């Protein structure tokens, strides 16, 4: 079958090695990061991956399933933060690790996809809450910190990241990573422990 442009529409599995599922996940993550959840259709993702949309549905069911799989394929290792034994340095360690993920080309698309999609999709918003809520507290070694304190710290870090990487707020963009961490860390420390 051909499309209006005269090219044959991709169908079934791609030839050669079956990296089809990974190709779909990569295409999905790219489009979710660029367009958000609502702006990314299964058809557009399939086109970017070079497969038929039916194959996307075969692997992932629907767009919610695809979004969860795309984000889930890369989020488990994102939030492993070593805060060490010094509670007085927790704010700096957390700010450095979290804001560093936004600077890293390997993890930035995942975070962009989560943030852009969470503003338009309840499913994506739920996933973002999971990432910055209980999972953050657990993997960062903050199990002993009250959930409201962790939520406030996470909210501040998310706001700084959005200002820098989504909105492009110039005074925040102009700071080096180290300068940004130094300025943000005391507030994060106060949120977590009341110190700082």
Care to describe what's here?
With 196 residues, the chain is mostly helical. The protein has 2 domains: 20-72, Homeodomain-like (Arc Repressor Mutant, subunit A); 87-193, no CATH class. It is 65% helix and 0% strand. The protein has 11 helices and no strands. Helix 1 (20-35) crosses helix 4, helix 2 (42-49) crosses helix 3 and helix 6 (108-118) packs across helix 7 (122-132). The longest helix has 21 residues, at 147-167. The radius of gyration is 19 Å and the shape is elongated. The relative contact order is 0.12.
Contiguous runs where pLDDT drops below 50 for at least 5 residues: 1-5, 9-17
Task: Report strand %.
Answer: under 5%
Mean pLDDT across residues: 81
- Span of the ends, CA to CA: 65 Å
Protein name: TetR family transcriptional regulator
Keywords: DNA-binding
Region (Disordered): 1-20
Domain HTH tetR-type: 18-78
Q: What tags apply to this protein structure?
A:
single chain, 196 residues, mainly alpha, Arc Repressor Mutant, subunit A, 2 domains, 0% strand, disordered N terminus
Task: Set down the secondary structure blueprint.
Layout: H1 20-35, H2 42-49, H3 53-60, H4 63-72, H5 90-103, H6 108-118, H7 122-132, H8 134-139, H9 147-167, H10 170-174, H11 177-193
Put the structure in a nutshell.
With 196 residues, the chain is mainly α.
């Amino acid at each position: 079958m051909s499309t209006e442009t005269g090219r044959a529409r991709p169908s079934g599995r791609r030839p050669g090695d079956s990296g089809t599922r990974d190709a779909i996940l990569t295409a999905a993550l790219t489009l979710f990061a660029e367009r958000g959840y609502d702006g990314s259709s299964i058809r557009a993702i399939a086109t970017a991956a070079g497969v038929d949309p039916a194959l996307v549905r075969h692997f992932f069911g629907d767009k919610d399933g695809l979004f969860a799989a795309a984000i889930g394929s890369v989020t488990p290792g994102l939030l492993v933060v070593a805060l060490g034994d010094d509670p007085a340095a927790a704010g700096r360690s957390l700010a450095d690790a979290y804001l560093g993920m936004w600077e890293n080309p390997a993890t930035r698309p995942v975070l962009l996809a989560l943030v852009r999609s969470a503003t338009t999709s309840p499913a994506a918003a739920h996933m973002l809450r999971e990432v910055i809520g209980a999972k953050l507290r657990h993997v960062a070694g903050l199990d002993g910190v009250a959930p409201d304190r962790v939520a406030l710290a996470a909210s501040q870090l998310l706001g700084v990241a959005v200002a820098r990487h989504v909105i492009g707020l110039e005074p925040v963009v102009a700071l080096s990573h180290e300068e940004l961490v130094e300025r943000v860390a005391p507030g994060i420390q106060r949120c977590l422990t009341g110190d700082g």
